[in-house]
Structures are given as C-alpha cells and as structure tokens.
Write the structure tokens for this entry.
Amino acid sequence: MSDQWLRSASLAVPSRPSISVVVCVYNDWDSLVECLETIEYQEQAPSFEVIIVDDGSKDPIPTFVTSRAWNFPHKVISQEHGGVAVARNIGIQASHGALIFFTDCDCILDKSCLRNIFQCSSEYPNSNCFQCLLVGDSSTLVGTAEHLHLNFIQQYRRSAAGELVYLNTSGTAIRRSRINTSGQVFNPLALRAEDTYLLADFIKNLP
C-alpha cells in the first residue's frame, strides 16, 4: 500500500463486515460531515465499515473526521489528486465488506438505506449490483431538475425482466465476488462518466 495513505480508526474493523461504505471527498468537507451523520444513524443496519478517501484536497483533513468518536469502524485514506475513479479503486482495495457500497460526500442516506441494500442482496443472490433510489434536492432549481432527471431514468430505463439498466455510484452496492482481485473496478483513465463505463462492463459480462 502507498506510503501516502493515512489511516485512522475509532473502532476495530471486523474481519468481514457485511458492507463497506466507500465515500470519496475532494475539498467538500462540510458536506461530508452531514453524509457521515446519516451513515451513523442508520437503523437496523448490518455490520459495516466506512472508508473515506481524500482525493488530494487542498485543505487538510478536518479533525471532526479523524478525531470524532463515530460509532462505526472507519479509515481515512489520503492520496494525491487522481480523480474519483482512482479514489474509489483505492477505497475498494482498503475495504473488507462482502458488499461495497458507494456514495458521494454530498449525499444524504435514508435511515434504512444499508438495511435495505443488505436485504436486497440476500433476496437476489444471483444479482451482483444493487442501485439505490436516488432523489434530488427539490428545494433548489438545480436540485429540482436533477430530481426530475433521476425520476425519469429510474422509472423507465428497465430491462424486459424489470431490472434497472442504470448505474449511479451516488448510491450503488457491488458484491465483492464480482470485483477482480486487483480491486480495479473503475477505469482510472475516466475523468468523467466512470459509472457508464462500469455499467457497460457489467452488461458485457452478463451470463
């Protein structure tokens, strides 16, 4: 592992938690605290850890991240700025969970999010990828436009079997068994649309 990585843990990490939550951040520390608080207050969640990857932020990691007594095991990893695809791959490599759940630092999780993801993975053992229902912040014009866009995609972009043919890593879980041993899930050359590349890879490798 790179010497540039920095780890801090408030609790011992289980050898194999049910879920690893990977959150990447680049300068947006204010949003991260709210995101982490919604993770902290998950209800009836399975065992989980949180991997925070700092993608070369200009400001140092705030003490609220490294010193706060979060009620979940967590690691903080710092890297030189390489983009979200690289940061997510590093988060995968540092994780232990049977499911790896990706969310963005400016996202707010529903209180039953992790419980529902875990239940869904148990109910559909032959599926490898699970997409959360995403909603935009309708209190702003930009957020309303995003909400309408997300609602349309999630309602109509489905396969003949009813599966959602869409992937947005603002809220997506992938089975570890679907990930190659190198942990290189996301194309490190993709500066944008890394979700689309990953979806195309999943579709290409469908049985």
User: Anything to note?
Assistant: Helices lie at 29-40, 63-66, 84-93, 113-123, 141-156, 194-204. The longest helix spans residues 141-156. Residues 19-204 form a domain with the Spore Coat Polysaccharide Biosynthesis Protein SpsA; Chain A fold (CATH 3.90.550.10). Residues 1-12 have pLDDT under 50 and may be disordered.
